[in-house]
Amino acid sequence: MKRSLILKLNNKSENFYSYMGRFFGSRLVQNKINDRIYDDSNKEWYILLEEDKPVAFVSMVKDTIKNLYSFKDEQLEELLKGLQQEVKISESVVPKVFMSAYKKAKLKIYDENSYKNFVVIGSEEGSRS
Predict the structure, then answer these.
(1) 78 contacts: CB under 8 Å, gap ≥ 6
(2) Domain boundaries in the chain?
(3) Rounded distance, CA 34 to CA 124, Å?
């Protein structure tokens, strides 16, 4: 079984770019999620490591997801479940490509149809009435 660990970092953290540098500007990432990843200073990054290598990440501003990516849905599901133990996720616009991970992590799907490549998700006790 692979050993996994979730790190919480920001772009000023000592090892941030050694873990995250290869994802910024990556065409592979951009093509999969139809979005670009930026290292804005107001973001907190939750990074899932397996064998000390990043396999999934979520960036957040307060309680809103700004970016996410994963090599496999199962890795993102694990990260989202761990994240929800720490924060209630507000409505966030995220890539549709990971829909099964959102559902398995028991995130609420608020809107699947307003965006071509994105979906609106949040914690089960989310902010919509």
Answers:
(1) 4, 48, 56
(2) 4-89
(3) 26
Q: Is the dihedral of CA 23, 28, 29, 30 positive or negative?
A: positive
Q: What is the CA radius of gyration of the chain?
A: 14
Residue with tokens 């999934």: 56
Does residue 16 contact residue 9 with C-beta atoms inside 8 Å?
Answer: yes
Closest CA to 89 of 81, 99, 101: 81
Q: How many CB atoms lie within 10 A of CB 52?
A: 8
Q: Of 22, 64, 15, nearest to 42 (Cα)? A: 64
| pLDDT tens figures, 39-69 | 999 999 999 999 999 999 999 999 999 999 9
19-34 pLDDT, tens per residue?
A: 999 999 999 999 999 9
Which DSSP string do the residues of 32-73 spell out, in sequence order? HHTS-----TT-EEEEEEETTEEEEEEEEETTEEEEEEESSH
Number of Cβ atoms within 10 Å of the Cβ of 98: 24
